[in-house]
């Protein structure tokens, strides 16, 4: 009887060890779960792409008589911004207006506006707000119309300017 009892305990022990080993092998990494918190901060960015620019303004005798020349869609930009608060596009005339001979004219003679705006604004000596968005911009097209006011010192020909445009996230 002792032999039987001893053999039964050994067999029962082996079965228990096999069942335990089998249950351990069933635990794999997908069966183990945990919760983690992740915090990501995305920097606000805004950028402009220059699509088209008319750098020279052609003044004709008819423009001299009229006193100004309009250049619709003189500058075409594309605005990209990831800020949900929007962005601001600033513009600035970085120098004076000049002709082929290098003769310079005041920057206030060159004016700008967006096509949907009614009135032109003169370029000042510091950056000015051209456009302000209210949210994320994904390739929003912006075109700028220019107007050159003509003085009595101007003659028919080409006139040049240098403008800068900057996009800033809000």
How would you describe what is shown here?
This protein is of the alpha+beta class and 170 residues long. The protein has 2 domains: 2-31; 46-169, Sandwich (Immunoglobulin-like), CATH 2.60.40. Helix content is 18%, strand content 43%. The protein contains 2 helices and 12 strands. It has helices at 2-26, 61-66; strands spanning 46-53, 56-59, 68-81, 87-93, 97-99, 104-105, 110-113, 121-122, 128-132, 137-149, 157-160, 163-169. A 5-stranded antiparallel β-sheet has the order 1-3-10-7-8. Strands 2-11-5-6 form a 4-stranded antiparallel β-sheet. Strands 9-4-12 form a 3-stranded antiparallel β-sheet, with no helix packed on it. A hairpin with a 7-residue loop joins β7 and β8. The longest helix has 25 residues, at 2-26. Residues 5-9 have low confidence and may be disordered.
Give the key terms.
170 residues, alpha+beta, Immunoglobulin-like, five-stranded antiparallel beta sheet, four-stranded antiparallel beta sheet, 2 helices, 18% helix, 43% strand
- What is the CATH topology assignment of the largest domain? Immunoglobulin-like
Coarse shape: elongated
CATH class of the largest domain: Mainly Beta
For the sheet with most strands, the description reads:
5 strands, antiparallel
Which CATH architecture of the largest domain would you pick? Answer: Sandwich
Describe the protein's topology:
Layout lengths: L1 H25 L19 E8 L2 E4 L1 H6 L1 E14 L5 E7 L3 E3 L4 E2 L4 E4 L7 E2 L5 E5 L4 E13 L7 E4 L2 E7 L1
Antiparallel strand pairs: 1-3, 2-11, 3-10, 4-9, 4-12, 5-6, 5-11, 7-8, 7-10
């Amino acid at each position: 009887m002792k032999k039987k009892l001893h053999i039964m305990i050994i067999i029962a022990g082996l079965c228990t060890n096999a069942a335990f080993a089998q249950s351990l092998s069933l635990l794999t990494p997908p069966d183990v779960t945990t919760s983690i918190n992740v915090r990501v901060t995305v920097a606000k960015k805004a950028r402009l792409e220059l699509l088209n620019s008319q750098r020279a303004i052609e003044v004709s005798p008819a423009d001299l008589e009229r006193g100004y020349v309009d250049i619709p869609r003189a500058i075409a930009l594309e605005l990209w911004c990831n800020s949900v608060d929007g962005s601001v596009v600033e513009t600035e005339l970085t120098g004076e207006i000049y002709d082929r001979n290098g003769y310079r004219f005041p920057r206030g003679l060159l004016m700008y506006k967006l096509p949907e705006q009614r009135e032109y604004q003169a370029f000042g000596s510091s950056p000015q707000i051209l456009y302000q968005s209210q949210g994320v911009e994904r390739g929003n097209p912006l075109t700028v119309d220019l107007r050159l006011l003509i003085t009595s010192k101007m003659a028919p020909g080409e006139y040049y300017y240098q403008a800068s445009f900057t996009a800033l996230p809000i």
